[in-house]
Amino acid sequence: MSPAPARQPTSVEISDAILARFLALHPKEIDLSLGRTQRLLADLGHPERAMPPAIQIAGTNGKGSTTAFLRAMLEASGRSVHVYTSPHLVRFHERIRLGAPGGGSYVDEDRLVATFDEVERVNAGREITLFEITTVAAMLLFARSPADVLLLEVGLGGRYDATNVIETALASVITPVSLDHQKFLGDDIAAIAHEKAGVLKSLTPAILARQEEAALVAIEREAARVAAPLSISGQDWQAREERGRLVFEDGDGLLDLPLPRLVGRHQIENAGAAIATLRALPALRIGADAIEAGLGAVNWPARMQRLATGRLPTLLPEGSELWLDGGHNPDGGRAVASTLAELDERSPKPIVMIVGMLNTKDSDGFLEAFAGLAGRVYCVPISSSTAARSVEEVAAAAERAGLAAEACATIDEALGKAARAAGSVPPRVLITGSLYLAGDALAANGTPPQ
């Protein structure tokens, strides 16, 4: 009897193996520099110069949501849109969306593997970080696929982020800047904002969401240096909620719009930044109808996402709510806590949190936002990151914030304990603290981003 043929690896397994090889190409996971990226792009014939015109999005909080609003509005206008974001939640290919008439889709694994193979061969084993070489792969894909616009989200910082190899852009967007990644960007808001402002380009419209004063001063200084015209929230435009509507106002007039599909008051500002960007680009001719349609169609996983289907909600009592948010820094915590408070005001339920965090994040600052709001915190490990804090560390941070905390081995265990503790009153459960934990939750729920 002949032996059964060996199982061939799937495209997903192949791409994972290539990513593991990429990770070994440089001793540091993060090493902000443009030189290695520029060198590999030059060896590939400069695909970054053949990409569709780009809108580049930098900032600390709200980058992904603002990008999602931009995509939804552009696609509602009939444009095809490439999108580059990071990190991914479940599968790497979520970082690369290729535009097409009627709506784009994530790059398929076979095409991703072929592009990884090409950049790996041309790089020939030279030092380059994982983010740099995968950004080059994305740019190669974007250059080879026609689209009207590329939405290019900065990975970390701005000035020396691999995405900043582009020489021109349609517009630059800077979402709210706050303390995060101080090890790489600086110890205070002004220093971090200076690095974010490195994406600004001469004579290119720059749209600023609401900023702290120190951040605004730093960005204005850089904008003056490179002669980038600014459009600033609260000065040149504003977005606000009035009577259950989103009102956007700038020098060109007022738009009375429905509230965005994404939940939370902070999404008003993110939507406003997207609208201000499109209004600064009259050549695109994005009308009010497309903006309104985009607000209703926008989708961005793990940003106050309600998990109503899948496996995890079945672990809670009937009538419970399960929410997911990847917030992970103090400003993100305050935004999520504010949204939880709004939900509680409309429909009171006991609030329970399931939290996992990375050791590069301010756990105390994040969890302080939930003091007096959450009844209990179950702390869980993050299986998809080697930089996860131990559950004991997260529990200690929660207790310092005045929150009752308990360590759990898995999300399932935490949900089980929340269910047993609820008794006859179904709780509102929030899984939060990290985008990596959000990815673990979506994978466990069987509902990865589509």
From TrEMBL:
**Per the database record, which ranges form the Mur ligase C-terminal domain?**
319-434
In the record, what terms sit under GO molecular function?
ATP binding; dihydrofolate synthase activity; metal ion binding; tetrahydrofolylpolyglutamate synthase activity
* Biological process (GO), any one: folic acid biosynthetic process
Q: In which pathway does it act?
A: Cofactor biosynthesis; tetrahydrofolylpolyglutamate biosynthesis; Cofactor biosynthesis; tetrahydrofolate biosynthesis; 7,8-dihydrofolate from 2-amino-4-hydroxy-6-hydroxymethyl-7,8-dihydropteridine diphosphate and 4-aminobenzoate: step 2/2
Q: Does the keyword Transmembrane apply?
A: no
Q: Which NCBIfam families does UniProt cross-reference here? A: folC
Q: Where is the Mur ligase central domain?
A: 57-277
Protein's name according to its UniProt entry = Dihydrofolate synthase/folylpolyglutamate synthase
Q: Which UniProt keywords apply?
A: ATP-binding, Folate biosynthesis, Ligase, Magnesium, Metal-binding, Nucleotide-binding
The UniProt record lists the EC number as 6.3.2.12, 6.3.2.17
The enzyme's first-digit EC class, named in words, is ligase
Which organism does this sequence originate in?
Answer: Methylopila capsulata
What InterPro entries does the database record attribute to this sequence?
A: Folylpolyglutamate_synth, Folylpolyglutamate_synth_CS, Mur-like_cat_sf, Mur_ligase_C, Mur_ligase_C_dom_sf, Mur_ligase_cen
- Write out the function statement from the record: Functions in two distinct reactions of the de novo folate biosynthetic pathway. Catalyzes the addition of a glutamate residue to dihydropteroate (7,8-dihydropteroate or H2Pte) to form dihydrofolate (7,8-dihydrofolate monoglutamate or H2Pte-Glu). Also catalyzes successive additions of L-glutamate to tetrahydrofolate or 10-formyltetrahydrofolate or 5,10-methylenetetrahydrofolate, leading to folylpolyglutamate derivatives.
Catalytic activity annotation: (6R)-5,10-methylenetetrahydrofolyl-(gamma-L-Glu)(n) + L-glutamate + ATP = (6R)-5,10-methylenetetrahydrofolyl-(gamma-L-Glu)(n+1) + ADP + phosphate + H(+); 10-formyltetrahydrofolyl-(gamma-L-Glu)(n) + L-glutamate + ATP = 10-formyltetrahydrofolyl-(gamma-L-Glu)(n+1) + ADP + phosphate + H(+); (6S)-5,6,7,8-tetrahydrofolyl-(gamma-L-Glu)(n) + L-glutamate + ATP = (6S)-5,6,7,8-tetrahydrofolyl-(gamma-L-Glu)(n+1) + ADP + phosphate + H(+); 7,8-dihydropteroate + L-glutamate + ATP = 7,8-dihydrofolate + ADP + phosphate + H(+)
What cofactor is this protein dependent on? Mg(2+)
Q: Mind telling me which Pfam families this protein's record contains?
A: Mur_ligase_C, Mur_ligase_M
GO CC terms: cytoplasm
